[in-house]
Design a protein that fits this description.
The structure is a homotetramer of 388-residue chains. Chain A is of the alpha/beta class. Chain A contains 10 helices and 17 strands. Chain A has 2 domains: 7-136, Rossmann fold, CATH 3.40.50; 142-386, Dihydrodipicolinate Reductase, domain 2, CATH 3.30.360. In chain A, the strands form 3 sheets. Chain A has a 9-stranded mixed β-sheet with strand order 16-15-14-13-7-12-11-8-17. Chain A has a 6-stranded parallel β-sheet with strand order 3-2-1-4-5-6, with helices on both faces. In chain A, strands 9-10 form a two-stranded antiparallel sheet. Chains in contact: A-B, A-C, A-D, B-C, B-D, C-D. Chains A, B, C, D: One of its GO terms (molecular function) is nucleotide binding.
Chain lengths: 388, 388, 388, 388
Amino acid sequence: MVGVNQKKIRVAMIGYQFMGKAHSHAYRDLPFYFDVPLKPELKVVVGRNEEGVKEAQEKMGFESYETDWRKVIERDDIDVVDIVTPNHTHAEIAIAAAEAGKHVITEKPLALTVEDAKRMHAAVEKNGVKHLTCYNYRYVPAVQFAKKLIMEGKIGKIYHFRANYLQDFIVDPNFPLVWRLKKDVSGSGALGDIGAHSIDLARFLVGEITEVTSMMQTFIKERPIGEMTSGLSAKGSATEKGEVTVDDAVAFLARFESGTFGTFEATRFATGNRNKNKFEINGEKGAIRWDMENMNNIEVYFHDDPEGLQGFRLINCTEEIHPYTGAYWPAGHIIGYEHTFIHLIDEFFRGIAGDKQTSPNFDDGVKNQIILDAVEKSANEKRWIEIK
Amino acid sequence: MVGVNQKKIRVAMIGYQFMGKAHSHAYRDLPFYFDVPLKPELKVVVGRNEEGVKEAQEKMGFESYETDWRKVIERDDIDVVDIVTPNHTHAEIAIAAAEAGKHVITEKPLALTVEDAKRMHAAVEKNGVKHLTCYNYRYVPAVQFAKKLIMEGKIGKIYHFRANYLQDFIVDPNFPLVWRLKKDVSGSGALGDIGAHSIDLARFLVGEITEVTSMMQTFIKERPIGEMTSGLSAKGSATEKGEVTVDDAVAFLARFESGTFGTFEATRFATGNRNKNKFEINGEKGAIRWDMENMNNIEVYFHDDPEGLQGFRLINCTEEIHPYTGAYWPAGHIIGYEHTFIHLIDEFFRGIAGDKQTSPNFDDGVKNQIILDAVEKSANEKRWIEIK
Amino acid sequence: MVGVNQKKIRVAMIGYQFMGKAHSHAYRDLPFYFDVPLKPELKVVVGRNEEGVKEAQEKMGFESYETDWRKVIERDDIDVVDIVTPNHTHAEIAIAAAEAGKHVITEKPLALTVEDAKRMHAAVEKNGVKHLTCYNYRYVPAVQFAKKLIMEGKIGKIYHFRANYLQDFIVDPNFPLVWRLKKDVSGSGALGDIGAHSIDLARFLVGEITEVTSMMQTFIKERPIGEMTSGLSAKGSATEKGEVTVDDAVAFLARFESGTFGTFEATRFATGNRNKNKFEINGEKGAIRWDMENMNNIEVYFHDDPEGLQGFRLINCTEEIHPYTGAYWPAGHIIGYEHTFIHLIDEFFRGIAGDKQTSPNFDDGVKNQIILDAVEKSANEKRWIEIK
Amino acid sequence: MVGVNQKKIRVAMIGYQFMGKAHSHAYRDLPFYFDVPLKPELKVVVGRNEEGVKEAQEKMGFESYETDWRKVIERDDIDVVDIVTPNHTHAEIAIAAAEAGKHVITEKPLALTVEDAKRMHAAVEKNGVKHLTCYNYRYVPAVQFAKKLIMEGKIGKIYHFRANYLQDFIVDPNFPLVWRLKKDVSGSGALGDIGAHSIDLARFLVGEITEVTSMMQTFIKERPIGEMTSGLSAKGSATEKGEVTVDDAVAFLARFESGTFGTFEATRFATGNRNKNKFEINGEKGAIRWDMENMNNIEVYFHDDPEGLQGFRLINCTEEIHPYTGAYWPAGHIIGYEHTFIHLIDEFFRGIAGDKQTSPNFDDGVKNQIILDAVEKSANEKRWIEIK
């Protein structure tokens, strides 16, 4: 409940495209659903294009806008800097924000390189600010519930983790060369954009990966040069073509510290799959299946159910007992994608209020980056790479 | 986009439970997602319990609260009165609001009786105000898309409409005697609470019903007397029991003007089903299936697909081309229950801005009530009842 | 195992179309999978068309064929007469067979009228022969398993039985006027052909129905006059048209002795559904869902599962512990439609070997017919009909 | 139709466990459903255990039995030798049969080593006999239909092939050390037993694999010494333990000649999955999904479907137009696992009748073995292995 003594937390957001919309919506709805210790105030949104950022400011409900992020990073009236810009800009902004003593939120992947990610982590640690890397899928209620079942020992030792993140938005050869397809801006393709999410879910649910062998592929090597939009719905019209410098698809085999046998695939060429982010876990006592396209559901199997009555249960995680969903609607009334960000930021702000560092944070961002790096190296060198 | 000349629309909401939360969230998020001609201002929320309504006011973001709805109905600074109180109070408030010249939103069912519903309709018509009855499931994007397919002739003549609305929240005999189980407050049980939604979907998608034969049942006739909460999650502790005066389950057969053969069932005793609101339409050219628990999806079948390739297509209605969803996230990123209210109110406010009466309105509320009435009469008299 | 002392049971089959194929396959495979006390010997198949019946004899593995059923009914070397002819011929043949002292198998529905069905039942009882009415869906392993769960009290008092049998094979107006569409041959349309199966499942799983109210409809009233084939894949070419004298669709509401609230729908106009024979049962302790198109699976829900872990379990009934399936393949290797007849006949022959009358028998056939009759009467007279 | 001039094909079957049952059932049912040029005569079944083989002979309908396969291989009255014994015996029997001029059927995998497989292939080629390796899943109607769609260009260039074959029958650590868990008898574990099926489906649908990198794991390294049963349902009781010498799980990444990006996983530790043999194909024009647990269905997606109407179609491949299913039941009446063997042998016998070599044959067996070999080598040497 928004009490009289409730404190504010003042936010500057750098960038305003797809992720900017998701984050600003989360700030808007967070205090509506949850009793928050800190109520977000949307102070300023930053973008290079004045027309665009002005429109975003009005729509998203920020008090003001700026075109130069450096101007806002030092402002006294900002507590949190939220970075939703293309990947190649994360490091510079995040480090500057940390040095200015701001808590820092950064979209994933944390950086283009492990080195940058580590510098970012060092900066937030040195400056004693809280940090968040937005691996939002951890915060789907069904995924949190999966974690709870695993922690309670209901699944037992995990034999298998099997993740697929399948999209198809660039199957059309005329889809333009957006920033997500350029290595110098995005770092990698399917790997860092969606594979990184599967890696985070694996780390969250199963633990650390110790080695990988991988394969990457770019099916369409040249594309029309289009506008640098946010990347998921751009339409190319130019006749000029440019080189695609990232992977369209990646797959890798992984071993975990836990002895788990892991398989991963991430692709933007899985025709028919718009956003099929799914995993299956098989353990000695049970199994779990989840799929983002039916994000409210989880399928759970218990080996100890009576003979003849064993089967995957389809559980709609919308009951009061399920994580977060008590704050919403009666059982059976589903929630959508945007709620993952509400939960992610709820957790982060509670951490700030209680002076605790929550997860996923920059350390998670670094560890994820190390795996991304190893996967890419493995594909290039065609050999297993150990993760240290 | 919130432009400089954007006008405001000032809202008073009477009641603040389950539906109050859904409506106030819709007001909050509407301008975030959509370019609205009128931006809602949440002026005042009304409730009899001062502590409760104060808490609601803060949480939901209203400027103020009141404990007497009569005080707000006449206020100059109110454009819309939104009534989310228990059913037996709808008529009095709505008529008063209409007579005060306010646009009126009323939750469904519109009233306890056809007579009340008609008086309400007459009042809004006489006073020239716009009116909305909140049959929100029409505004699921997948349902709007179903309507579009039907309108375009893609399904052809409709042979069958088959609706089930299955819940199980009162299967436990110790679930208390909440207001939804008392005829003098709610009008009816499963019939008016959830069956009414199926009827509205039928009218929206297929057209008018001409006659019905029905059966109603109350499986558990006495329940512990509990608190008058919003009704979906109350827990009874009292040892005293009171009589359940509404139906636990209802089913009816219906004929439509279109010649369609209709079957309906609504129940709160369908163990295992939290909120399974579903329908299937079979027509000469195709078929449609939809289910609220997977509300973003629609299954569509075309009789003219090539032999061997005929099958229900599972379409995730989250693409730019689907109704409303272009305002949200990239394809494959689902939305939830609360969005139905955003769309419902978006449509209503656009109507007000453009001086057009939208649907579902009080006329729909009356027609729905006439059918509810006929269904109940048919069950009582054990005979077919014609709908005039 | 076929031991040295294994006895034979000698079969004459009257008719050889769709059901003849299903029955003769069952005779063929029964001793392969099961240790049978009586091994079927296929003595003779009967049909009026000599060319057709000769072809059937060779294909199905009968020793001989005949064109006049009267010639075989009295033969000393026949133990069982299996009647798979169109419905209007059942009574005469079955009564003659019973009077000749043969055990009698009759396809469903047992007869065209309750009177005929009762005469048939009287004849088998008087002559002390065993009898079977082929409501084969009882013998799907998953359905038998459902029955077992109900008998063990795992579902508790049954509140709801909800059955749909949806087909679409006559949606095309040019589908010809086959015998299944003529009342004098088939008795009724969707009602007796497929609705009768739902009624049998209801009686098997829930118990007796006490009253019904119904609605029937013939969407396409005239069709091309085609050949009198077995009816499911005939193609009409004639320009002459004849009247469809049976129902295309039927729906009814039913009350059971058990207090269960029943809804039924059977139709041949459910575009997109080839053979969707399904039911859902909701009880005080649990729920069951089943669908013939996924006949090996059953979905089971237990109300007493721990909070948060409640959900329908998808059980693939192919394990050793499930009814009949131990005789087949390892778990997860599904069986198909034809196995229902193997189990049905296995049970019947075991009954004969042990001098026990099994189910479903002519008594079930009569009771089913009484319900069919009541449903039709209710539709004609537009009122509730009690079942005595 | 079994015509007067129909010829016979006389079969000797070596072995009689799980696969023996599947094959002998296929011989039994083949002429019932299909018009065959050669009608199988089951002459003799061979097994070392006299009691067991005698029982099998009677149950499966063979004319006689033998305990020494060498005695039957040379018999003049045998046309086909069908080898369903454990893998380590395939080579010797098959070569002897070929040299005796018999057509040879061998269960998969063809042999324990590539060398053996090649010797077998050389033997059948040299002796001019027809040969079959029983990769039966090719002959699921839905899989044949998938092949047809691919051949017709409906899927376009194939970007992805993604196969999982998931079982869980040995998750229990007390499951005994059956022959399938001993390398000297079975050759490998999940790899050769089930992974080999995925490889065959990949070769059938997509083409040849050019290189692989893999990972194998044995989760439970010692098991109770049990009886050498057929392996899928044995129960161990011994307290003595022996070493598991095969893989419990294997995964590999693969590149195809076609440029397709392939991922494979086969495991017996996928708790909750009894026999989940599935694949997904994503191509430039469409996509296909299939899963053996719902073997009659195929999901097909077409990229060129109108915008908004794109989605996977669930096609029940039981219509007359679908491969093989016209021989069975009306649309919507599903078939089961055993039918795959009927189709496989139907095709083989038609080949013999027409003097054509059909697929999958020993050449397919050799190519499959080369891939199995490469996968195992890759896992052992932790590097990519090229397939020559």
